[in-house]
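Hi all, long-time lurker, first post. I run a small reading group and we've been trying to get comfortable going from sequence to structure in the token notation. Rather than ask abstract questions, I figured I'd post a concrete chain and ask someone more experienced to write out its structure so we can walk through it together at our next meeting. Sequence below, copied exactly:
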Amino acid sequence: MAAPALPPETPARQARAVLRATDRAALATSQDGWPFASLVLVALDHDATPLLLISDLSEHAKNIKREPRVSLLLDGTHGLDDPLTGPRVTVLGEARVSADTHLRQRFLARHPAAELYAGFADFHLYRIAVARAHLVAGFGRIHWIETPDLLPDVDPAWAAREHEITAALNGDAARLRTVLHAHGLDDGWRLTGLDPEGADLRHRGVISRLEFATVARGPDDGLRAIAQAKLTKR
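-- Answer (accepted) --
Happy to help. Here is the structure in token form:
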């Protein structure tokens, strides 16, 4: 059976593309009735649910403890002469602490430098339970997106197999070099994640993404799809 085609270029798919291609965001919390914004690193669950790693000592963690409703602004306008012509997404939701080890693995794969402090007792992983999202895709292209449209259902096999598959590819220098060179990338890049719509790569502080031509049914299909994927540089 052929793999399902990617959904049409709907607002939900455009918003997910911004989320998946971004590794940081402005987090807004409520502090004594005032909006309080701060910079945070972001990773995603396979369905594009945002994940944060936050210290209890931070102002935003203290704010979340009192009021878990937050918003995240993810900016997809990098490199544009006029940023207001580019896409950005605001996600509204509740920040909830998660003990899911796979989600923690996903975050640390996306942000390897966080390994230095992720084990400290005051750091916790938060999963944002998304209420809705707001996409601005350029002038006059503005959409509210409801959660069922933004976050697709994902087979649990992604969580079960992803780490094994990415570790195997990153550990096979010859095979990884073949993949990288096929997309015009130099050695030094590593695969940090696979999801139904693409694969994430990182080289030091720079991220890139390979967008699949069709929806991958599972991580093994995703691995095979990398060769035909389209590179999206950050």
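A couple of things your group might point at:
The helical segments are 11-20, 59-66, 101-110, 147-150, 157-171, 173-182, 219-225.
The mean pLDDT is 93.
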